[in-house]
Amino acid sequence: MNNIEVxxxxxxxxxxxxxxxxxxxxxxxxxxxxxPFCDDQSLYKQYAEGNHALCKGCQLNCCSxxxxxxxxxxxxxxxxxxxxxxxxxxxxxxxxxxxxLGLLRLQPNPCVFLHNNICSIYTVRSLxxxxxxxxxxxxDTEELIYKIAxxxxxxxxxxxxxxxxxxGVVAGGLxxxxxxxxxxxxxxxxxxxxxSFMQAQDYRDVPLHYFLPTGKEVSSYANYSDQNSGSSxxxxxx
Length: 238
Ligand code: SF4
Ligand code: SF4
What we know:
36% helix; binds iron/sulfur cluster; globular; mainly alpha; 4 strands
């Protein structure tokens, strides 16, 4: 049996995609089952042209308006692929106004890496870019992917602060959306998941159990029905 299974179920009257974690899975295992959704033209995608398209090269691209704070693993991989040290990478590719506020947001509108409607760093794009899908996800699954992505983003901020690459988050000048991100990042900053991202070389080094609901066996995750907070912020229009 695979560590992660994909299933469909109806939730609140809508058919959605869910995942079931069966064993000692890692973030890489989840990415391996997730990429086929991006590549699946038969899947209903709300914002795709005709509602059916590959994500790569999508003409109505979520990358045009995304708010992306890369997770730490992708942050390092992006800098490496560009052959830049971290300071030069931050100076060249991140939103300068947000940097001054202590937030590492990729230059947006459209994303600095979007060239001719295609991500120019597709293989090293960040978790929020890999996980965002304009298809209906079951609540538990949506909660899981955003928790992983925001933990990874919090790790990037902690890493950058420790290296003196950005100031700590400052209180003034934040938009309401910035404040939402700051609150989420602060929530995850001290978590075990952030420590795991800090130590990891790759996604296979980050176990999924850090992100599953506390006190639940991983095999019962799919049936977990505690407070589902509905849609989460992430790679979406801002
Ligand atoms: S998730 Fe983004 S790239 Fe994929 S179809 Fe939707 S809008 Fe296009
Ligand atoms: S990094 Fe790539 S996938 Fe992510 S928003 Fe930018 S262009 Fe899109």
